[in-house]
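Example 3.2
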Amino acid sequence: MDNTEILKAEALRAEALKKITAYVGFALKAGGVRFGFESVKSGGKKNYAVLADGTLSDKSKKEIAFWSKKNKVGLMFFDRLDEITRKTGVKVMSVTNKELAEQILRNARSPSADKPSYN
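Structure, written as C-alpha cells:
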C-alpha cells in the first residue's frame, strides 16, 4: 500500500465516511492521535496517517502535503475534520496506531468510495 497518495474525503460515500469516523473514534479513545501540525511533525515516523481540514490555507495544505510525502505518511483532507473527530477546532491530526491508520486509508480507497480524487 502506497501511503503517499493524497486523498480528498469529500468524494467518499456516507458508508465509507462512517467507517472512517468510527476508526478515528477508536484511535481517539486509545490515545493514538496527535493534534496540531507541530505535534504531528515532531512525531516523525510514528505517524501513519495525517488527517487535515480542507479549510486550511493553501500554504498550510502545501506544507502538510510536502511533509507527508517526504515522510511517506498517508494524507487525507476532509471538508470538516471537526465532524470526524467530534472535537471543535481540529485542523490537523495524525493517527499513530498503524492498524487503525491503515483501516482509515483503506476505507478511503475502498470500492465503497465514489472515486476519490488524487492530487
